[in-house]
Amino acid sequence: MIAGRDRKPSTTSGDAHLPRAFFDRPVLDVAPDLLGRVLVRTTTEGRMRLRITEVEAYAGEADPGSHAYRGRTERNASMFGPPGHAYVYFIYGMWFSLNLVCGAEGQASGVLIRAGEVLEGAEQARQRRPKARKDQELAKGPARLATALAVDRELNGADVCTHDDTAPLSITAGEPAEPGAMKNGPRTGVGGDAAHYPWRFWLEGDPTVSPYRPHKPRNRRPELDASRSTP
C-alpha cells in the first residue's frame, strides 16, 4: 500500500489540465498519482500525447539519490522552483531526462518520467527513434522517452500547468490508475544509501514499462586508477 494517496485531487475530465495543486503535494503522493495521466508535448511537427506508465520519486535534500541532495546548483535550480514545472537534465553526456517538480517551492522534490505509451504522434516518435522495433518501445525508459518527445534543455523550467493548448508541455488528467494496478520497488540505477528506497512506481504488466536494473559502479580505466595511486 502506498501512503498518502487519500489526498489525490479529483478530476472530472480526462482532457482537463492538472492544476498546480496536484503538484503542490509531497513527492510520494504525486509520483504514483501520475500513472495513467497524459503528458502532452507540442512541437513544430504537431501534438504528441503519452500515457505515463512508469515514474520515480526523488525527495530533494532528504534523498541521497537526488540531484538536489547537496543543495542548489546552477544545474538543478529548476527543482527548487514552484511546483508544476519541468526539470530537464543531461546525463552521461548523451541523453536528456524529463522530471516534474512537486512539493512546496524550495523543497526541490521531483518525479522522473521513466516510460509511457505514445497515444498520439507516434509517427514523430518513430522518426526520432528509428531503432525501436515496435511502438511499445518508443518511450520505454527515460532517455528513449525524452528522445521520442523531443525533450531537451529548452524545456527546462517549462510550466506544465498551463491551459494554453499551444504550450510545449502540459499534463492532462487522463485515466488515473487504480491502486491495485500499481507496483513499487527500488529505483533503477540508484546506489549508495538510497539504493533500496521503494520509490519507483509502475503499471504492472504494461509492455511500455522499462526493465529494472540495479546500480552498477562505473569502472575506471586502468590508467586513471594508476594515476590516482601516484604520490
Automatic annotation (TrEMBL):
Pfam families: Pur_DNA_glyco (PF02245)
One GO MF term attached to the UniProt entry: hydrolase activity, acting on glycosyl bonds
Keyword DNA damage: yes
Region (Disordered), start-end ranges: 205-231
Keywords: DNA damage, DNA repair, Glycosidase, Hydrolase
Gene3D superfamilies: Methylpurine-DNA glycosylase (MPG) (3.10.300.10)
EC id: 3.2.2.-
Chain intervals with Basic and acidic residues compositional bias: 220-231
NCBIfam families (UniProt xref): 3mg, PRK00802.1-3
Similarity comment text for this entry: Belongs to the DNA glycosylase MPG family.
Protein's name in the database: Putative 3-methyladenine DNA glycosylase
Source organism: Streptomyces oryzae
